[in-house]
Amino acid sequence: xxxxxxxxxxxxxxxxxSLLSWxxxxxxxxxxxxAKWPRPRRRLGELPDGSRVFGCEECAGIIDVExxxxxxxxxxxxx
Length: 79
Ligand SMILES: [Zn+2]
Fold this sequence. Notes:
- It is built from two helices and two strands.
- It has a two-stranded antiparallel sheet with strand order 1-2.
- The longest helix is centred in the last third of the chain and has 9 residues.
- The structure holds zinc ion.
- Zinc ion binds next to helix 2.
């Protein structure tokens, strides 16, 4: 639910693995919409252990559009 707004200086977004499915954690499914096909190819962030997570082109576009919008104003919550 509430995601901490303590993102590091980099643009990498760290996802909470407890909120993701196994497939999402493995990079086999989009972390936003769960789509497994077409295979997500855009890196959208990573897990606390450094594993990369991916999203489809469409969702990556949504996230990239307004990267600086405060969490409370985001229209597209990941969960
Ligand atoms: Zn997606």
